Amino acid sequence: MCPGAFAKCLGISLLPLSVVCVLCNILLFFPGGTPVDTKELSEEVWYFGGILGSGVLMLFPALVFLGLKNNDCCGCCGNASCGRRFAMLSSILFAAVGVLGAGYSVVVSVLAIKRGPFCQTSEGWKYPFENRDYLWKECLQPLDVVHWNLSLFSVLLALGLIQAVLCAVQVVNGLLGALCGDCCGGSRGQYE
Fold it and tell me: DSSP letter string over 23-58?
């Protein structure tokens, strides 16, 4: 498979992952599936790890990867493949943006899972798991907030890791595309 076609596959894979991450982050604003006061939300929800990191920042590389298959950049110095090589090389920068965005989402998710949800306990509103007290029944309100936060932040963590790996793969693919040209060992001269 040519580097441009492979990049397109990566871009197609990144789009639904970023949409799911945005949806997970939006759902975190409704702990237990119910609307709550903004003061009753975990602090990490407001970091927008799924919306900004794995969502918006991931759209840039995904869209660039999708366009690499037919990107010629008009060639350079009379060499038509030079433009494609430059496009593959520039895709490395967008892949780096994707790795940074996914990394941000992963860090926020890890911190949120480690800290636990902000919830009402018998002692008032606090982070009851911050002191390593893992009695889930301590959270009285919002209902099922522990399961809710743990599930959604775990999904964000897993998808962020997948996105980071896909963008890292594009770094290697971009280098191969820049060094080898259109199709390594192929006789076509066009992305398939």
Answer: HHHHHTTSGGGS---GGGS-GGGGGTIIIIIIIIHH
